[in-house]
Amino acid sequence: MRNLLARLKQIKITKFKFNSLTVFYLVAGVGFLATIFIFIFAPTNQKVELSGANNPADQAKILAIGSSQSSSSDDSSATASSTEGQLENKEVLKTVKGKIQGTYLSSEQPVSDLSYLNEKGISFIYFRASVGASQVDSMYKVSTEAAKKAGIPFGAVLQYDNYVNSYSNFAEFKVAVGDTLGVLPIAVDAQSVSDDVTAQSVASLVQNLMYQYPDSKVIVRTDAQGISRIKPAINNDNVRYWLVANDIENRSSENEFIQYSMSVKIGSGIKTYQLPMSIYNGTTSDFKSITKEAKND
Predict the structure, then answer these.
(1) Which of 124, 128, 130, 219 has an alpha carbon 20 to 30 Å from 141's alpha carbon atom?
(2) Three-class SS string for the chain?
(3) Is the pLDDT of residue 91 over 60?
(4) Average pLDDT over residues 14-24
(5) Comparing C-alpha atoms, which of 192, 201, 211 is closest to residue 165?
(6) What CA–CA distance (Å, rounded) separates 66 from 44?
């Protein structure tokens, strides 16, 4: 009897182990089949990344800002000299046709393919060299070398910081440009001139630049209010201005450049750029007279 009970227990345990293993394999099999089904039939979302530079070296040095916006029409006419329809104020666009046009770039808005901009009508480029007393623009040297290779006249911009004194602004600019000053007049970007103290500080900065770089002209980039404050403080008729406006109505000879828009569409496809655009307020002959021949070395 004891032998029979022992035999029955052995059979029951064996059956239990067999049933548990079967269930395990069944669950695993169903899970595997479900995974295969999901992998084959379930929809997937693919992310496509577009790069604005094909050359890895360029990608490492220059951040392309080509927009990936698609276009259903031919945008080949969207050039600096023919940009009708790209701004809300189309009348402004009509008035700038045929003018010598250029843009202002920095590490916050870099462009890798300067030859392409040149093809689209960009005749000059200003690059930010420094900001106040604390920042040398990381893209300045790379950008100026690219401009030389593209044969585009360029200039250096000192972005003025009214929280530090004029000499500190000046000293940082000297470090930033080194021996690569550019072929256009030095530009002091002074957008916030709200009082006479600031205007006097900008005037002192301009004087330091004129003394340090006697072979280069100096212009001040600011709005109409800024000019009205800075001009009496500088008291020098040889200093010209880069008027920041939304049009080119003020064609006074003191305004060497006029920024007529903060954003104009240049190019098409992945090489679409939204750039601040300015004109040179003079003739082609005048423009050549304020530039030196760009060298490729």
Answers:
(1) 219
(2) CHHHHHHHHHHHHHHHHHHHHHHHHHHHHHHHHHHHHHHHHCCCCCCCCCCCCCCHHHHHHCCCCCECCCCCCCCCCCECCECCCCCCCHHHHHHHCCCCEEEEEECCECCCCHHHHHHCCEEEEEEEEEECCCEECCCHHHHHHHHHHHCCCEEEEEECCCCCCHHHHHHHHHHHHCCCCECCCEEEECCCCCCHHHHHHHHHHHHHHHHHCCCCCEEEEECHHHHHHHHHHHCCCCCEEEEECCCCCCCCCCEEEEEEEEEEEEEECCEEEEEEEEEECCCHHHHHHCCCCCCCC
(3) no
(4) 52
(5) 201
(6) 27
- pLDDT at residue 28 tops 90: no
Higher per-residue confidence, 52 vs 40: 40
Pairing of strands 154-159, 135-136: unpaired
For residue 38, the model assigns a pLDDT of: 56
How does pLDDT run across 121-131, given as a tens digit for each residue? 999 999 999 99
pLDDT digits (tens, 9 = 90+) for 263-275: 888 888 888 889 9
Instruction: Specify whether the CB–CB gap between 243 and 223 falls below 8 A.
Output: yes
